[in-house]
Every structure is written in structure tokens, then in C-alpha cells.
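Usage

Read records sequentially. Each one opens with the input sequence:
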Amino acid sequence: MPTPDQLTLFLKGEIDAAWAPEPWVSRLIEEANARLFLDERDLWPNRQFVTAHLIVRSSFRREHPDVVKNWLRAHIELTDWINAKPMEAKQIVNQQIQKDTGKALPRKCSTNPFRVCNPPTIRSAALF
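and closes with the structure output:
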């Protein structure tokens, strides 16, 4: 089920629970009066964990090391920019959410903490 559909299905009573990332958790709480049952961060050491894994075929990495290196560099630069300008980043994310779903996040949801960790924690990747 697409994560944005969880709110509608929850409001209709077609689902009773959902596992969702932000900002969808905040939408469920704010718009559907949902209750947070479990914060996944509590399951990880120091509440830090990898949220995305970059996986590259060994042959691609050998044949295109410049592409892999540039992608990683751009990812790190973007993450640093998001952490340096969280309000601007939230605004851009909210605009894209509105474009993708037809509805922007409510103000309270779009001002919740917004932080992207960089670099990812090695321990949580190993636990994964």
C-alpha cells in the first residue's frame, strides 16, 4: 500500500494501524487522531539507524567508479544542505508532496523535526 494512502484508509476505518515514516506519521496523528504505538528509533542503539542503503553491483562499480563517486558526493552535499537549511528543505519537500499527492502537509506536520543524518551509522547498517 502506498504510504500516502494510509491516511485515507485509516480515516475510513479500513485499516487499524500503519507503519509509516515521517511526515506520514504526523499526518496520521494530526489528521486522523491516531496514536503512536511504537517509535522505531527506540529499537536502535542511540536511536540512530540507516534509512537508505545504496547498493551497487560490483561490476558497475568497477566499470563506472566516477558515476558512483559523483552520486555519493552529490548525496552527501544534498544531505549537508538539508541539515544546514531545514526550513527551506521542508518547504521544498512539502511542495513535492503536494504535487505528488494533491495535498500539502498541514503546517504542524511540516514543521516537525527534520534532520537527515550523514554519514550513516555503520553499526545500524551491520545490524540490518
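Summary fields computed downstream for this record:
- Confidence is low (pLDDT under 50) at residues 121-128.
- DSSP finds seven helices and no strands in the chain.
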